[in-house]
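USER: Note each token:
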Amino acid sequence: MQPPRASLVIRSEEQAGFVSALAAFLLNHVRESGAADMADAECLASIIAHACLRQDHLWRDLGLGGRDEVTDMLSRYFPALVMRNVDGMRWKKFLARELALSLGRAPQPAPGCPGCEDFGFCFGDKSEHRA
């Protein structure tokens, strides 16, 4: 039996820019901490950035068993970033927020967030954040 195939198409320059910027942002945090093998970190940064385009919780988008597994993975590769999530914000929201702030922009949802069942919980009124 073959595992299910995940498909994801980057549909816009905005999404491509988000993926590129988030992967670079994550890799900057690996370089700061020196906590992980850089080749593994590059793969993981790309996987996480692409997963943020999907319309579910990051742990599900990554095929993990729960939020704690995302925390464990991020702690291994991006420990300084994990330490900044002092409010326990959901990871996809946190990463999008931190990326926006690092670029001098107002925080906004990750591209996949508006399609999530919990968008209203994380961001309030959906109409405020949709393009």
Notes: Residues 13-126 form one domain.
